[in-house]
């Protein structure tokens, strides 16, 4: 069973949903770098204070600091993880490789969820998010509307402010400029670990494809 997994994909490709499915089915922790940064900040750790120096100015946290926080998490919680949308840059990918080598470990699987831009835009325009737990749902698929109760935690569902065409254009530009080079890096350096999955299929079908790749041949 593969237990060190990187999950990549464009906006609305279902990375968070599939990471949750894998985590529930196989007891592999779903790790969000954003959540780790917030946790360190709330605890007032040296790493958290260092991250605050950047975020308080509206700037991105440097790659090496992100990986230091991830490395700390791995040292404390073990080397079983699903990184959702991380690494976001080639520098982060290189830092992650080095951090894993220092722990005498390496990635087991790199999954790329592929989705056409037309479907990305359709999903974003139809998406609702929970204000509390952050879960996302397709309004049409799940027969939900803004203001309805979240099926997971019963908090209100809303349309996110950045779920609009202008914000999506910027997110797609970031994906093309930052994440696509990460995919190329993994294709060149770890081609046998990279698995491409068509994310346009239903969530259950995508998970079935993922599950087949999680089991060692």
How would you describe what is shown here?
The chain has a domain at 4-116 and 179-214: Rossmann fold (3-Layer(aba) Sandwich). 51% of the residues lie in helices and 14% in strands. The chain contains 9 helices and 8 strands. It has a 5-stranded parallel beta sheet, with helices on both faces. Strands 6-5-7 form a 3-stranded antiparallel beta sheet. A hairpin with a 5-residue loop joins β5 and β6. It is globular, with a radius of gyration of 17 Å. The termini are close together. The mean pLDDT is 91.
Q: Which short descriptors sum up this protein?
A:
217 residues, alpha/beta, Rossmann fold, five-stranded parallel β-sheet, three-stranded antiparallel β-sheet, 51% helix
Biggest sheet statistics: 5 strands, parallel
**CA(first)-CA(last) distance:** 9 Å
| Low-confidence segments | none
Would you list the SSEs in sequence order as H and E? EHEHHHEHEHEEHEHEH
The largest sheet has its strands arranged as: 2-3-1-4-8
């Amino acid at each position: 069973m593969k237990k060190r997994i990187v999950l990549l994909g464009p906006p609305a490709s279902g990375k968070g949903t599939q990471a949750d499915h894998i985590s529930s089915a196989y007891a592999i922790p779903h790790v969000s770098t954003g959540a780790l940064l917030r946790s360190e900040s709330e605890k007032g750790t040296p790493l958290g204070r260092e991250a605050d120096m950047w975020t308080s100015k509206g700037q991105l946290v440097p790659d090496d600091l992100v990986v230091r926080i991830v490395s700390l998490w791995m040292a404390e919680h073990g080397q079983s993880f699903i990184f959702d949308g991380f690494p976001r840059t080639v520098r982060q990918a290189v830092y992650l490789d080095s951090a894993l080598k220092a722990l005498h470990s390496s990635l087991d699987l790199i999954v790329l969820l592929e989705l056409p831009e037309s479907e990305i835009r359709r999903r974003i325009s139809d998406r609702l998010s929970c204000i509390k737990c952050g879960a996302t749902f397709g309004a049409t698929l799940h027969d939900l509307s803004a203001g309805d109760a979240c099926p997971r935690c019963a908090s209100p569902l809303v349309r996110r402010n950045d779920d609009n065409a202008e914000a999506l254009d910027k997110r797609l530009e970031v994906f093309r400029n930052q994440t696509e080079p990460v995919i190329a890096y993994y294709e060149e350096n770890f081609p046998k670990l990279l698995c491409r999955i068509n994310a346009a299929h239903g969530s259950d079908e995508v998970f079935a494809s993922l599950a087949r790749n999680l089991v060692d041949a």
